[in-house]
């Protein structure tokens, strides 16, 4: 079996960098006492190195942006990298906090050989502005230690791989400190001579764990791996290097997240109509926002437009430190129907319609738009329904009595006696079954102003106006 | 006639009153009332222009005037928007009048800014057949904005306003003042403004009557209204 290991040395820093529009020197600070733990090439060019104190680092590069980071967060970031890697490799094993192992042997043919796969991964990494060190190995452990010590090569030749393993310094072999020191004192500085020692001697002198570890590097002992499986939802978390104070500042990072969502949806051959957006603040509860489109959608452009409208309506209550994009609802894509090659078709029309309705909903709110539908009830106020747009309502063709085109929201007391009675009475008596009883005699009459109204007289003898024949 | 005039006429740079009633061009939507079409330039509602209907009170037949357009558009699958209608467009009555109610969308907005934004977006979309907006504003900039939005699209845009704005100047391509007729089957629109024509007043349109004949007082039916007995 051939394994491929990806080691991400600057994962957390690059995670912060993804929400940046321009590159600038940045460094992560962590640990006790605080020191530089990750830095980008711009910072390195200014002379900043790992292990410096924050004071030294800022003195070296005056425009250096320092971020206090918690390395625990890196695990969550690693998950996000596994998602895209999963599209290229079937078996993926996470090595938190900064490594991913992929089984490469079975995929060589798919990607046109190992060099093809290697190149593809490098391209993906460049696109995502990530730094990763890749290494091949015949065992998971050998791939891992080669990647971490920057000795990875794109080869599947057992001889060559063995050679690079033999040349590896003992200190890079992922052994505990005491064992490394003992080996070095024995004069064993590279892994080759260590692996040449008999197992029994190794176990006796260095302990059975070390012997097992070395056997696993060589592949003589089993090394069980726990496979990672993609979650059934999409979750993308973004952290900002600097607090964002205006809504417009959220759009750039959000666009990146939406592009990833688009890639994910394309890969799944699915689409979605609901996005959950969470804006995180410092010492404040998160602001949840929901972006909905009336029809299932997968394009990032469509979502970013809806998000822009939504964000225009919600001013930020506090500076944002990050945001999360979640999608749980995946819908299957339908094959377009009745679509010919020359544009203007029903499908096209329907798409434009959904696009317009989604835009309006995003700005005005979901309850501002309604379709009208009929309801089988004799009571005038219940003979119609306002249905949310996006729901397909059923056409119905009942035979209807004469009704006004305008219905008043509430019946209003009649202020003058009509001058001409046109029709009536029509008695409507219904609703005794649900406690909202209606017993009215309806008339159509013309008022002195020339208006034609729909009037009723209820059981108490009062006269009300309920509609206009507009 | 002089050569210069002939040339101008050939280049269609002069509008001639005698040529007003031409064949329906694609930018015109028939109102469904031949008596009204005859007075409208091109013979119908102009598309891609603002039409202003001034109404003093609801219930005089202002919607019945729109019904033929509503029927035609919804049956063709075009969407009709009702933006901030003063009352509920009553679905049973619309369905009874052969309007395909699946293509009607009612929108309620909270602010003037939202209202105009919504109208602009509706008019810009190719799916919109007709957008009706009820606006209570005297601000010229608002009206001007609606006119620009209407001209940007290719759909019908009808602005309903109160008749107290009749004296105000308006950039609308067509302005109608709707007056109630003698009975419920009649509507008397005054054309306050039209392109390429003088104002016309005193038109009488027969709109679909509410009742076919007045109820005959039958001797065996006691007719209301009744006075309050207790």
UniProtKB/TrEMBL annotation, chain A:
UmuC domain mapped to chain residues: 20-147
Keywords recorded for this protein, A-Z: DNA damage
Record bears the keyword DNA damage: yes
Domain of life: Bacteria
Classification via InterPro entries: DNA/RNA_pol_sf (IPR043502), SulA_CellDiv_inhibitor (IPR050356), UmuC (IPR001126)
Cross-referenced PANTHER family: BLR3025 PROTEIN, BLR3025 PROTEIN-RELATED
Designated name of the protein: DNA polymerase Y family protein
UniProtKB/TrEMBL annotation, chain B:
Domain of life: Bacteria
Transmembrane residue ranges: none
Name by which UniProt lists this protein: Translesion DNA synthesis-associated protein ImuA
Organism from which the protein derives: Marinobacter halodurans
């Amino acid at each position: 079996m051939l394994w491929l290991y990806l080691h991400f040395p600057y994962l957390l820093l690059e995670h912060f960098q993804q929400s940046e529009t321009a590159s600038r020197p940045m460094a992560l600070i962590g640990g006790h006492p605080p020191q530089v733990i990750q830095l980008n090439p711009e910072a390195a060019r200014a002379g900043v190195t790992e292990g410096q104190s924050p004071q030294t680092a800022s003195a070296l590069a005056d425009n250096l942006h320092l971020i206090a980071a918690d390395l625990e967060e890196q695990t969550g970031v690693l998950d996000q990298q596994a998602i895209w890697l999963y599209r290229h490799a079937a078996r993926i094993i996470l090595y938190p906090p900064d490594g991913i192992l992929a089984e490469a042997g079975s995929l060589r043919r798919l990607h046109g050989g190992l060099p093809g796969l290697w190149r593809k991964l490098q391209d993906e990494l460049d696109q995502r502005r990530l730094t990763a060190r890749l290494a091949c190995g015949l065992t998971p452990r050998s791939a891992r230690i080669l990647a971490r010590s920057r000795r990875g090569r794109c080869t599947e030749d057992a001889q060559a791989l063995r050679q690079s393993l033999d040349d590896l310094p003992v200190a890079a072999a992922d052994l505990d400190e005491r064992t490394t020191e003992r080996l070095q004192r024995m004069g064993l500085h590279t892994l080759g001579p260590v692996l040449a020692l008999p197992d029994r001697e190794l176990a006796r002198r260095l302990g059975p764990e070390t012997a097992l570890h070395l056997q696993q590097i060589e592949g003589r002992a089993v090394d069980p791996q726990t496979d990672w499986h993609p979650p059934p939802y999409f979750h993308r978390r973004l952290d900002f290097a600097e607090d964002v104070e205006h809504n417009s500042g959220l759009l750039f990072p959000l666009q990146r997240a939406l592009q990833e969502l688009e890639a994910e949806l394309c890969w799944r051959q699915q689409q979605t109509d609901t996005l959950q957006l969470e804006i995180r603040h410092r010492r404040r509860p998160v602001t949840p926002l929901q972006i909905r489109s009336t029809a299932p959608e997968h394009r990032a452009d469509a979502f970013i437009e809806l998000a822009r409208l939504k964000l225009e309506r919600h001013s930020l209550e506090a500076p944002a430190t990050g945001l999360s994009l979640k999608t749980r609802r995946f819908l299957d894509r339908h094959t377009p129907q009745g679509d010919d090659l020359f544009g203007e078709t029903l499908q096209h029309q329907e798409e434009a319609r959904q696009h317009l309705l989604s835009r309006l909903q995003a700005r005005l709110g979901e309850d501002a738009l309604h379709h009208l539908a009929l309801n089988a009830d004799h009571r005038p106020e219940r003979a119609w329904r306002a249905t949310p747009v996006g729901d397909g309502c059923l056409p119905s063709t009942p035979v209807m009595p004469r009704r006004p085109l305008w219905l008043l929201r509430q019946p209003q007391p009649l202020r003058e006696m009509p001058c001409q009675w046109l029709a009536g009475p029509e008695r409507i008596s219904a609703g005794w079954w649900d406690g909202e009883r209606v017993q009215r005699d309806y008339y159509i009459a013309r008022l002195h102003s020339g208006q034609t109204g729909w009037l009723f007289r209820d059981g108490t003898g009062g006269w009300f106006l309920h509609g206009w024949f507009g | 006639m002089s050569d210069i005039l002939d040339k101008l006429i050939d280049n269609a740079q002069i509008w001639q009153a005698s040529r007003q009633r031409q064949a329906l061009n694609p930018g015109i939507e028939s109102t469904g009332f031949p008596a009204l079409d005859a007075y409208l330039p091109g013979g119908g509602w102009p598309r891609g222009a603002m039409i202003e209907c001034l109404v003093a009170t609801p219930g005089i037949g202002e919607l019945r005037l729109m019904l033929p357009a509503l029927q035609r558009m919804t049956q063709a699958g075009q969407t009709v928007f009702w933006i901030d209608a003063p009352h509920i467009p009553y679905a049973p009555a619309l369905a009874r009048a052969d309007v395909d109610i699946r293509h009607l969308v009612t929108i309620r907005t909270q602010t003037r800014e939202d209202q105009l934004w919504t109208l602009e977006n509706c008019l810009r979309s190719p799916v919109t057949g007709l957008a009706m907006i009820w606006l209570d504003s005297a601000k010229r900039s608002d009206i001007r904005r609606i006119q620009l939005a209407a001209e940007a699209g290719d759909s019908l845009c009808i602005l309903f306003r109160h008749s107290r704005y009749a004296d105000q100047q308006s950039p609308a391509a067509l302005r109608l003042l709707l007056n109630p007729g003698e009975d419920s089957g009649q509507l008397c629109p005054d054309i306050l403004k039209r392109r390429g024509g003088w104002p016309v007043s005193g038109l009488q349109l027969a709109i679909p009557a509410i009742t076919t004949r007045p109820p005959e007082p039958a001797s065996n039916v006691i007719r209301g209204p009744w006075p309050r007995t207790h």
